[in-house]
Design goal:
Elements: H1 2-5, H2 8-20, E1 34-38, E2 55-59, H3 60-64, H4 73-79, H5 85-102, E3 131-132, E4 140-144, E5 151-155, E6 161-167, E7 169-170, E8 177-182, E9 189-194, E10 199-205, E11 207-208, E12 216-219, E13 228-231, E14 237-243, E15 245-246, E16 253-258, E17 267-272
């Protein structure tokens, strides 16, 4: 495995998987410290080592959750919140094709046992999208096209398009709003739409996260006083930019970091939600 990791094929496979996943963790949508995880282990399925469907992008924290549980299909699906069954089904079909053509057989420790493959009667919305986020508040964001030029739209649980394709990236709804990106991943700006597709907060931030307890943290990459602050659901700044990183509010508190995480000099604390009087 270590020898394989040093090959150009492995590096190319990693880049393809990350590009397909939009350079985001498939579990928490973090964009930093990304790893690429083989769904089927290289040792047991070497013929799938460079197959793009055999990879998922995870940040280091989410990847660490899989330690010693690589073959636990239920745990993997729980960690990876975006739809994974369709990808696994494609992999299983690839394995069957290889069995027919070149006689490659499934390993006994295969991640997906033969009797656990996705039954057709379980499919509610057929595989037809190039990427998809989880359903939240009755809607899911899906991509039409590749990770560079594709656009996102929102569908309901019947697969009907509710908000037409128009965004360069779009995320799950939370508290009635979804943050969307207009422009590419490096220079694009983020704003928020409501469930009718109306722009509630114009695209003006370098990053916006999900709303939680009435607030969402936003990022301004060129700020000298810090990188992150918090806005309310009208887009008004409630907590000015001052943190090197910030997390969503939960139970009235949000953690923040002051200092650089890479140099391990950063320190964490908590702030209270000013909307709670």
């Amino acid at each position: 495995m270590n020898t394989y990791r040093n090959t150009p094929e492995y590096r190319e496979w990693k880049e393809k998987v990350k590009k397909r996943d939009g350079d985001l963790c498939r579990s928490c949508q973090n964009k930093s410290y990304l790893d690429v995880h083989h769904i089927f282990r290289v040792e047991s399925h070497p013929h799938l080592s460079d197959h793009i469907d055999n990879g998922i992008t995870l940040c280091k924290n989410c990847h660490a959750k899989l330690k010693n549980k690589e073959n636990d299909i239920d745990f993997l699906v729980e960690v990876v919140t975006q739809p994974l069954r369709e990808q696994m089904d494609r992999l299983s079909q690839t394995i069957r094709s290889l069995e027919r053509v070149v006689g490659v057989s499934q390993s006994e420790d295969s991640l997906i046992p033969e009797d656990d493959l996705l039954d057709s009667d379980l499919i509610v919305i057929p595989a037809q999208f190039d990427n998809a986020y989880k359903f939240s508040e009755g809607l899911a964001s899906v991509r039409v096209g590749d990770s560079h030029t594709g656009k996102y739209e929102f569908i309901n649980q019947s697969g009907e398009v509710v908000i037409p394709v128009q965004f360069d990236n779009a995320y799950s709804f939370s508290e009635g709003l979804a943050h969307v990106r207009v422009g590419d991943s490096r220079s694009g700006q983020y704003g928020c739409i409501n469930r009718s597709g109306e722009v509630v907060i114009p695209a003006q931030f370098d990053y916006v996260d999900n709303f939680s307890e009435g607030l969402a943290h936003f990022g301004v990459s060129d700020s000298r006083s810090g990188q992150y602050g918090f806005i309310d659901q009208s887009g008004e700044v409630v907590i000015p930019v001052q943190f090197d990183y910030a997390y969503s509010f939960s139970e009235g508190l949000a953690s923040f970091r002051v200092g650089d995480s890479r140099s391990r000099s950063g320190q964490y604390g908590f702030i209270r939600n000013p909307l709670n009087t």
